[in-house]
Write a structure and sequence with these properties.
This protein has about 950 residues and is of the alpha/beta class. Helices cover about 30% and strands about 15% of the residues. The chain has 5 domains: about 10-100, 2-Layer Sandwich (Uridine Diphospho-n-acetylenolpyruvylglucosamine Reductase, domain 2); about 105-215, Uridine Diphospho-n-acetylenolpyruvylglucosamine Reductase, domain 3 (2-Layer Sandwich); about 220-300 and about 320-450, Vanillyl-alcohol Oxidase, Chain A, domain 3; about 450-735, Alpha/Beta hydrolase fold, catalytic domain (Rossmann fold); about 740-965, Alpha/Beta hydrolase fold, catalytic domain (Rossmann fold, 3-Layer(aba) Sandwich). The chain is built from 32 helices and 30 strands.
């Protein structure tokens, strides 16, 4: 083995490999060129910066992110048969992602849809389909070609006139996109990406697996081959004309495929008919084929595939060599004229070849391929009926004379044509001066538009001084200096300190991320959507792939209503919410995590215009503790409006339901922490904070306090409980979109304690979540929420059964807990803001993931994947995927409308038309929340409807009363 280089890229790739053998190689690796690079065209020298061999889609994602972070081009390699070595990047310096390990295969015997990894070779695909139900797809003849490139560029073969191209069999893919996201694409999900992948795949993602429709293997097959010899090539003119007339016939039987191959010693006219010899004779085709020495074979499907592979092995297609290749594509109106045919043959006879090994192959296409509209996929050669490919092989090296000879063939044909002929990208031609137009013709503008939906991503930008050393536990401090030149913003910053996390952690974590549509300028003044993650204020990170902002930005691009999206890290747990009187006495806030967010919002006001965002059009968006945080900002500083945001989206969270403990409650926790790290004994009380600031990061982290540190009434940021500030009218008054999930109680109810009797539940309520519920309040809750499992979470289970393991009172506890922590707060905020005359839009998310346990119901957090357009990661292959995808898109559209217009319905919005007609509009008109007739939008993939927000009215009204709010410490 060679020595592993040391560089940021190498370090990143090795980190993804995590010590796995045969995972990555570099130019210094032993046998790098022969064993890892393995050029197909030896005339084109190329040295990748590294070659990787991932085993999972997550590996591919990691490698793609490494490349992006280091400004390195990345290229997938499946079989590696690109004429221009494009599977190796086509030029020096690319990162190669070799998919050879992606060999998974399965087939659904009900639908006969096959799923297989992108590392399969064509012979593997044929064999596995044969062994699993004698199924087949259309593909080329070379056994060593990889399906990953073949099925994304076109994939032409003898069956294509009968069944369509290989890519016409693709109905879904798993693909890693340029930002490292792992997504699914089909006609109904990421349809624009799917369009691009079917014909121009290499430019839009790395497919890791395919789902394809399959067909029964044909029965009888007739193969024929005529060999014609001649004194010179000019004698071939009438022979080729006769064959061309045959393939140009619009009524030519689709079961018939044929090739016309010229070489140094003669010509071979070969073909395949998928049917019996009697059927073949009845077509009249045998009488129209130019005659010569004939060989006819009657056989079955697998024998024909084997014969094709044997023939391919004797030609250029199976071995590495130094060669040149040129190609052209023909419509019926591009039929080569007799004069041009004569000129072509005369050229071949008179030109210096520079080699004896050359071929000029014409093959028939069209048929079923032409049934698909040209604009249905990126593959644009639906109108073609014939292709030609010219090859010249050098032994051992290729000379210029051979290149000129093959180029002259193409030029002779082109010079005789009335129009500029195009080229099938599967026969890639590196000599083309305008390859994209030639390869994708009428679809190039669509592909460019899809490519324009690329995004600019700025990651890990600091918005505050590192809160370390003397700044630990203090208010966040703004950056006190600007920088000059270019600063790298290609990787997420460190995640803030937390437990049970797989993220890279550091106290130096106060960074912000911006995602915008590509090409946005500082003058565009786009609306800004700011995400604040949840996690109980003790966990969470912007680096969490569940919070990838690209999905929601993509929806905005597709709708023609682009937005800029932002997310920030903030301090968590004891790092962001350490509570002690000494902190308050020195002028520091015990709400440092919330103040981190506040400083980030100020950073947005000062800087977002440079990214094309409008600081006057900022909408905040958060879930759970993220929504709670936003609500605190709405009540901060006695409800002072600093102009930081003009609207808010609160998912499953708000200012009430999460307790704000008194300072004394944390005394024991603070003592335990300081004792653990050596800052209690022999340290004066006034010096303990300073001592904590001097503890090294690892020692402090190892203390692992068990208490959950929550915000505090510090007399500044929070001057009172939110419920008190509500009554005083001290809150920022902006439009609101708020909601929760049907079965929130699953996650937030009383748990971990006996729940077999009503007394169990009563006693647990008194100590639950550190609330201060009194016995009369607990008894009243039990009266308002009777023991009725027919009407309790999960609400979809209506057969009155008890939870099998959590106790007879668990469903009752879940009903109380869900309403107390989440639903009552959502309704209270809706009523408060509607009562102030502000537009409020309320929802109930009601879609259980198809693969989630029935008893989980529509639990807390499951809506996030839909909001972020990331249901692939949540659901995997789903029988109800299309409905889920439409629901996710409808939610995304409503959010984008709200960010743009402060109305989820949009203002004067016309649905844009896209390929295949208008987008489906899933949501009915979303009503404004009204105190007299309060309404929720119910978000469900099967049906979306508007409901009265009056269920469990008496119980929730009691929870919203000032008395209960006081006991909830909210």
């Amino acid at each position: 083995m060679g020595q592993t280089p040391s560089s940021p890229l190498a370090d990143c790739l090795n980190a993804v490999c995590n010590g796995r053998d045969n995972c990555v190689a570099f130019p210094g690796t032993l046998l790098y060129q022969s064993s890892w690079v393995d050029r197909y065209n030896l005339d084109i020298e190329v040295e990748p910066v590294a070659v990787t061999r991932p085993e999972t889609a997550e590996d591919v994602s990691g490698f793609v992110k490494c490349a992006a972070a280091n400004n390195v081009k990345v290229q997938a390699k499946s079989g590696g048969h690109s004429y221009a070595n494009h599977g190796l990047g086509g030029e020096d310096g690319a990162l190669v992602v070799d998919l050879r390990n992606f060999q998974d295969f399965s087939i659904d015997t009900n639908t006969w849809q096959a799923t297989f990894g992108a590392g399969h070779k064509l012979d593997d695909v044929t064999e596995k389909l044969h062994k699993n139900g004698k199924r087949a797809i259309s593909h080329g003849t070379c056994p060593g070609v990889g399906i990953g490139g073949h099925a994304t560029i076109g994939g032409l073969g003898p069956e294509s006139r009968m069944w369509g191209s290989c890519l016409d069999h693709v109905i879904g893919v798993e693909v890693v996109t340029a930002d490292g996201s792992i997504v699914h694409a089909s006609e109904t999900e990421n349809s624009d990406l799917f369009f691009a992948l079917k014909g121009a795949g290499a430019g839009f993602g790395i497919i890791t697996s395919f789902v394809m429709k399959t067909r029964p293997e044909p029965g009888s097959v007739v193969q024929y081959s005529y060999s014609v010899t001649f004194a010179n090539h000019a004698d071939l003119s009438p022979v080729f004309q006769q064959w061309q007339e045959l393939v140009m016939d619009p009524d030519l039987d689709r079961r018939f495929g044929t090739e016309f191959t010229m070489h140094e010693l003669g010509v071979i006219i070969s073909g395949t008919f998928y049917g019996t010899d009697e059927e073949f004779q009845a077509t009249g085709i045998p009488d129209r084929i130019p005659k010569g020495k004939i060989s006819v074979v009657l056989d079955d499907w697998m024998a024909v595939i084997t014969k094709h592979a044997e023939e391919a092995a004797l030609s250029l297609s199976s071995i590495s060599s130094a060669f040149t290749a040129r190609s052209l594509a023909f419509r019926r109106e591009d039929k080569i004229s007799p004069e041009t045919i004569t000129n072509l043959m005369n050229y071949i006879d008179g030109a210096e070849r520079g080699t004896l090994i050359w071929f000029l192959i014409f093959d028939a296409t069209g048929g079923a391929i032409s049934d698909v509209p040209t604009n249905a996929t990126a593959y644009s050669h639906r109108d073609k009926v014939m292709f030609c490919q010219g090859y010249g092989v050098g032994i051992p090296t290729l000379n210029q004379q051979t290149k000129d000879f093959v180029g002259g063939i193409v030029n002779t044909i082109q010079n005789g044509a009335d129009n500029t002929l195009t080229t099938y990208p599967g026969y890639v031609d590196p000599a083309l001066t305008n390859p994209q137009e030639s390869y994708w013709g009428p679809n190039i503008d669509t592909l460019r538009a899809i490519k324009n939906w690329d995004q600019d991503v700025f990651l890990g930008m600091p918005y505050a001084q590192p809160p370390i050393g003397e700044l630990r536990y203090r208010w966040p401090q703004p950056l006190n200096a600007s920088f000059e030149g270019v600063r790298k913003a290609t990787q997420y910053g460190y995640s803030c300190m937390q437990y049970g996390s797989k993220f890279d952690l550091s106290e130096d974590c106060l960074t912000i991320n911006v995602v915008r549509p590509a090409g946005v300028s500082a003058d565009d003044n786009l609306p800004v959507l700011v995400w604040i993650y949840g996690g109980g204020l003790y966990a969470g990170s912007t680096a969490d792939p569940q919070y990838n902002l690209s999905g929601i930005v993509k929806v905005s691009q597709e709708l023609g209503r682009p937005v800029v999206a932002v997310s920030m890290n903030y301090r968590l747990g004891m790092y962001g919410f350490l509570q002690n009187a000494a902190l308050l006495a020195e002028g520091s806030s015990s709400n440092a995590g919330l103040l981190d967010q506040r400083l980030a919002l100020h950073w947005i006001q000062e800087n977002i215009a440079a990214f094309g965002g409008d600081p006057r059009r900022v909408v905040l968006w958060g879930e759970s503790a993220g929504a709670q945080s936003i609500a605190y900002h709405m009540f901060a500083y006695d409800g002072r409006d600093d102009g930081l945001f003009r609207g808010a989206i609160l998912e499953s969270g708000g200012p009430t339901g999460a307790q704000v403990e008194p300072l004394s409650w944390y005394n024991t926790a603070f003592e335990n922490l300081t004792r653990t790290v050596g800052c209690w004994d022999d340290v004066k009380p006034g010096d303990r904070i300073a001592c904590l600031r001097g503890v090294d990061e690892a020692t402090l982290f190892a203390a692992r306090p068990s208490v959950v540190w929550n915000p505090l009434l510090d007399g500044d940021f929070l001057t009172g409980y939110p419920s008190q500030l509500m009554q005083q009218g001290k809150y920022v008054k902006v439009p609101l979109l708020t909601g929760d999930n049907t079965d929130e109680g699953f996650a937030v109810s009383v748990s971990g304690m006996p729940l077999d009797t009503e007394e169990d539940l009563f006693n647990n309520l008194l100590s639950w979540r550190s609330y201060a519920l009194t016995p009369p309040t607990a008894r009243r809750l039990l009266t308002l929420y009777p023991d009725d499992p027919c009407r309790a979470p999960p609400y979809a289970i209506t057969n009155c059964t008890r939870h099998p393991t959590r106790g007879r009172q668990w469903r009752r506890a879940a009903a109380i807990g869900g309403d107390l922590v989440m639903t009552s707060g959502r309704r209270r905020m809706a009523e408060l803001y509607a009562g102030a005359g502000l537009p409020v839009y309320s929802y109930r998310f009601d879609q259980r993931p198809w693969n989630g346990p029935e008893w989980d119901g529509v639990k807390h957090f499951v809506n996030v994947a839909f909001s972020f357009q990331n249901i692939s990661g949540l659901l995997g292959p789903s029988p109800e995927y299309d409905g889920h995808a439409r629901l996710a898109r409808a939610i995304g559209r409503a959010y984008i409308n709200f960010v743009s217009d402060l109305d989820p319905n949009g203002v004067g919005e016309d649905e844009p038309e896209r390929r295949g007609g208008p987008l489906e509009i899933l949501l009915p008109k979303w009503p404004v929340y009204d105190l007299e007739t309060p309404k929720n939008m119910v978000l469900n993939a099967t049906e979306v409807w508007v409901e009265d927000d009056t269920w469990r009215k008496e119980g929730i009204e009691f929870m919203m009363s000032p008395t209960v709010a006081k006991e909830l410490l909210s």
